[in-house]
Amino acid sequence: MPWGVWLETIVRSEMIEKILVATDGSEDGGAAERAAVALAARLRVRLGGITVVEDCDVKMPPSAGMTLPPFPEAELAAFHRARSEAIAQRLAGRARGEDLEAGCEIAHGTADDRIVEKAQEADLLVIGRDSRSADRRGALLGSTVEGVIRKTKRSTMVVPSGAPVAGPIVLGFDGSPGSRIAAALAVDLANALGEPVHVFVDSKDKGRAVARFEEVRQLLAGLSHPVRETSSTLGRPDVKIVDTAREARAGLIVMGAYGRNRITDYFLGSNAAAVVRTSPVAVLLAR
Question: Can you say whether residue 142 is alpha, beta or left, with left for phi > 0 and alpha for psi between -120 and 50 degrees?
């Protein structure tokens, strides 16, 4: 297949037509709601939501032979139902403010499983990063976010609290298949949003970096805005990508969900996972 036709096929396959935001009503969930509404409004695409009442919040835990007072399951279920309805109303109100409609499903069960199932109906999943764990060195992303990222087959945007909802796009490119998908998605988003792209190429070898820049220039040939290029042969790539986003005052980092070593990536030791943990802006993990 000719290069141009192949690239056009990837771009078409990565186009976003529906966004799903997962929210739990927390500050982090609110950040995801704001980001999803803003992106859906700028792209003029459909928006939906999901919030999950987890079984562990309303079901009686094992008593382990202890004598305990009656468990208030009915009261807890009523409380969480009312809270979930309030979350759905808040999302709908934010969407109406941008002339959008957004229904929010109230699901029950294990949060990451229900979110992953619902995400099959969307092209992009948006979820808030757990700020309680993000500030601890080496910490994971929070059990629900981590579970979703590991299980979903959909591109996922992880939003930290306080993240901007607009700005240039930083593309992290390492020559892996995942980063090629990310490049196609970055082209689509940059052209639709009217944002410039800053490309960060990771390579410990200068010659390989040159080859990767040549490849990414072809992948970004469809951009209607200028491209700024940055590379690094020293230091940690995740730190350099986040530094690039800060310097560019970016609104979004786009990178492949999996790099060149998927086995390492599974254990959240990858550049992508480290960027998600530490970035002050939203990170879109392309699949």
Answer: left
Tokens standing for residue 149? 């990222």
Q: Which domains does the chain have, with CATH numbers?
A: 17-65+72-144+155-159 (3.40.50.620), 166-286 (3.40.50.620)
User: Measured between alpha carbons, how far is 284 from 287 in angstroms, rounded to an integer?
Assistant: 9
pTM exceeds 0.70: yes
pLDDT, tens digit, 9 for 90 and up, residues 5-38: 444 444 444 579 999 999 999 999 999 999 999 9
Which stretches within the chain are classed as H helix? Answer: 3-14, 27-43, 55-58, 73-96, 111-119, 131-134, 143-151, 177-193, 206-219, 237-248, 262-266, 271-278
- Find all residues with CB under 8 Å of 95, minimum gap 6, and list them: 37, 40, 47, 101, 102
Residues 145-159 pLDDT 10s: 888 988 999 999 999
